[in-house]
Model the fold of this input.
Amino acid sequence: MITVDGVQVKLDGEKNLLEVISKAGINLPTFCYLSELSVYGACRMCMVDADGHLVPACSTPPVDGMNIKTNTDRIRKIRRTIIELLLANHDRECTSCERNGSCKLQAIAYQLGIDKVRFPQATMESPVDASSPSIVRNPNKCILCGDCVRMCREVQGMGVLDFQFRGSKAAVGPAFCKPLAEVDCTNCGQCVQVCPTGALSVKNDVPEVWAVLSEPDTFPVIQVAPAVRVALGEAFGLGKGKEVTGKIAAALRRLGFKRVFDTVFSADLTAVEETHELLGRLKDGGPFPLFTSCCPAWVKMLEMHYREYLGNLSSCMSPQQMLGSLIKNCLCEDVSREGKKVVVVSAMPCTAKKFEIRRAQFEESKPVDLVLTTSELARMIKEAGIDFEALEEAEFDEPFGTITGGGLLFGATGGVAEAVLRTAAVMLADEDAMKKIVFDEVRGLEGIREAEVTLAGNKLKVCIVNGLGNARKLLEQIKRGEKHYHVVEVMACPGGCAGGGGQPISQDPCVKKARISKIIGIDSAMKLRLPPENPAVKETYRRWLGEPGSQRAHECLHTWYGPRKRIAGESIAITGDETAKLSKGLKPVDVEVCVGTGCYLKGSYDVLKKLMENVNSNPDLVGRVNLKATFCLEHCDQGVSARINGKIVVGITPENVLEVLGKALKEA
Amino acid sequence: MTKTISNVNELQKLREQYKAAISQAKVRVLVCTGTGCVANGSLRVYEKLAEAARKRGLETSIEVLMKGEKEPLLLSKSGCHGFCQKGPLVRVEVSGTGREGSNTLYIHVKPEDADDIIESIIAGTVVERLLYRDLSTGQVYKSEEEIPFYRLQKRVTLEHCGKIDPEDIRDYIAHGGYSAVSKVLLETTPDEVVDLVSRSGLRGRGGGGFPTGKKWSFAKAAKGSPKYVICNGDEGDPGAFMDRSVMEGDPHRVLEGMIIAGYAIGASHGYVYVRAEYPLAVRRMRKAVDDARSFGLLGDNILGSGFSFDVTIREGAGAFVCGEETALIASIEGKRGMPRPRPPFPANCGVWGKPTVINNVETLANIPSIVLNGADWFRALGTPASGGCKTFALAGQVANTGLVEVPMGTTLRQVIFECGGGIRTGKKFKAAQIGGPSGGCLPESLLDLPLEYDTLTKVGAMVGSGGLVVMDESTCMVEVARFFMNFIQSESCGKCVPCREGTKQLLAILDKIIAGKATMEDLQLLEELALIVKDASLCGLGKTAPNPVLSTLKYFRDEYIAHVVNKRCPAGVCTALKEYYIDETKCRGCTLCARVCPVSAIKGEKGKPHQIDPSKCIKCGTCIQKCRFGAISVRS
Done:
């Protein structure tokens, strides 16, 4: 028993006083306490009086018999002063802030009735980092609660953001103060989800979309991802986990989109293509596991940190890119647009999708032109003054508007795996499984889930991962040979796309669960639940693609991956520029040897050493080589690589390096 | 030269051998090679002494004596004596190991004094001009222990500092080193060790003053393995250097303390965390670890006891906050040095998440003496609530600065006026800032306060690591508070809001006061905010950060009010509050001042008294320097 402001509360295994106090019906304000992250204890907003001692409720374990006071003069004074201190060092341009109305600092300042800040306002001079296609960092709004730092490190296992500097100069930022776009950020956007203020926000593409909509020569088309329909309603106060599919379709038409398509359709198509790939690998004996490739944050993480597994990734584009590709390749050809340019916009729960459309693989084809997150879409609807709640429900457009429950499940963790299993049941003609439809074994919320499913006599070992930290954990186990699977579904965000970085920000810890339950609920109420049985999918193959896995399908729906550098940076000069002057009338050659992790492990230091020995002593080379060490040339899979006079050369060894260099010198 | 000691007999044998070797020499000359004396050129003094001896055909190395040859003198390098102000120091010991009988301390020794010193040793005389002379009484002192600076001291942790070669483990062993380890490992149970330390009344010397025995008993009882011992050598208080002196002057004493702590709690590994700004301490600790390991006093099965313990040296990059235990642990783990909330305490969840005892250098350096002399002896040295002695780093406007190790309970007056020799400037004593940036400023009325943990905390200061800055009446107390606040706010790790933002605003208000721009409202806000930073900060750094402000507000409020209301700095320190004026009766109107004033603040007709426009004056002082008639003065 603990007394909280005179109320008796029974102890029931609560980890800290904060939980006990909330059981007593008191919500203490906090900035740095998030139940899914480690206790940080930095904001000091939850200071309480415990038996006469001032302690932080978040990091104090409850002890039977404690007498807690949460509302004394002293405590109120502390809380108010802390808010004042934060406000004095905060960019208080609230009216033009992305988070105006959803900012925790604003809300708590209002809750505590702060009517005056007694400290002088600091000047806000830190530059805003808008380098990333997904996330904008505004250090002037950062209150250093560390939520993003812990989210990125503890949950996502990346550690892209961390603290820098000391004292009042302390700041949060990427390594070496580089812009976010130049470090190994996966663009998952979970940092945005936990940021209490506008210090981290989603890159705003709304103006670009408005521009497209008002351009007379364009034909704007939009697609809507599965997880958007169970979250958008939150932005309009409709409560958590409410389905608003029909209203979205109606709203998008009102905004001016000429066609409104459903990404669930292409999720069905993805399930078919991916299952075809899986069955092919079963026949060929691998490579296993087949990693799903719908999640661009996961794909980027693999490209940067686990390039040896790139061959395991499914070659399927994500549903977003597949649908964009179909619209641009097939529909445009099919329908005359009177010279109008088709622009594909997508509405996604995801911030990494903004990065995905900019991948080099899509540079020419540009299947999707612009990505809106759920929150941005909500903002557009609000800006247009549309009474969302009052909208009459509408349907998606054909030919990409018919969907099955299988594709819908892509919006939640386990959904891709279940859709693939449903598809495999059909493709392998497992009548029982087709009748059963549901694969309970892959559902759940745990970070890593395993299941074994037998389909028409084929035993399939499946693993479902959500959260990149868990993905890393699993990859290490696979690497050590401790785990073997046929299929591994990975979604970077905890809960899958339902918990995506672009979803409406909520302080309610149950919101993800509500969205996921809704997705599962919609599926269970649907008549069409098996992706291959989607008539629109069948029609698509009939009209444009032929068979699953056909050459045309590959051209339209598949992609490739490559090693990716984690951090951008200048090469480091090994021999000073002055050594390589114009010697013997010959031009010097720039040789940059990669010393990134991949090449380092393959012996790039030995190559560099050999070169260093020679450029200083070999009479043919002295004064002719600008030797530099560089980080990652993105050819990690092909042995030690170097850039010689701007050209990448791979497969270098200490034995052949002089020969390679000799050739380059001759060419120069 | 290296050999393994595998049991207590071999340890004893080595001790006797080395003692015998030392006594082969009639005289031992120890040149201080602590950081202070090295900076003053003591290495050159050492070289010159060796050269002078060689010129006279004398061998001076211990290795020669170890062969059983007799030589008139042994020349060694020693650690810090704590009297760095008078360095380079040279100590000359005559006859027998221990040589309590007779010694001479030479101060401010220069390389060119080497010949005289060697000659005097041969002749059996003393070089008078190099002896310490008390400035006020004129009395000359020959032996170190008679000098007033040392007379009141009771050296426990500094026992060997200045008296042995810190880089020779055999010297330490010859002086009784590692006998505490052998006693503990071979004759005592871990429980008995914990009990002994508890009964001794030893409390953490790093600042908090937490009972060491209690800390050990928590870690001993904690579940989890392996366990660790950490020696906190991240001494960060400006002006405090007692830990550095011990690490530089007697590194094996620290290791001995760690081994005993490890044995007591069941740890097999230890870390010494030393700041990289102490390169000499890092080097000597590292050498001590290597030597102890090769002598078998670290590593597996120490002295055949079955107990194994090893030590790793970790260098800190110089963040003040890394002296805080949880930040230090994070730093050892390779993370950013930031404190985390406690509980869990390191005793249960320390380095690598394992039970860890983390003790300050001085704390650990007390352990061997407690083991050898007993808990009662140690407790009797100090007061009932704080056993033993404490080293203070005496600095500021005091005649003798340096390290003084005095029994707990010694009064501030004794330390300042007896060890310290009073105020150097001859001015009036004003305040003693004790405990570094976390401590407080105490006024004259508290001079008879016994120095111990609880009494100091009660008056708003703290023992801290033992920094003791003496200030005379020419010191502005607001400026002192500002100085420490500036230090703290730039050394805050930036984690918790009260410390990061609060100290910044405290500093801003202090700046405002010093600039003469503050109101009484600001003063009220200063006090209110200081109390909130104290109450709400996450770690000890933040919780104690306002102490300099709060203690000066408590004891020197008048000075704050003078700054705020009268726009005056009573000590005449704060530039912005100074006013330059021309005495009309003395000014001859020569116009020189007007011509040299860089901002044209001085006006006046030739031959007539000039005036200074205070709104333009930047208080640079050029006019005062140039005036040939002494007509310009400053008032504040």
Summary: The interface with chain A takes residues 319, 321, 336, 338, 340-343, 489-498, 500-505, 508, 525, 528-529, 532, 535-538 of chain B (CB under 8 Å). Residues 8-146 of chain B form a domain with the Glutaredoxin fold (CATH 3.40.30.10).
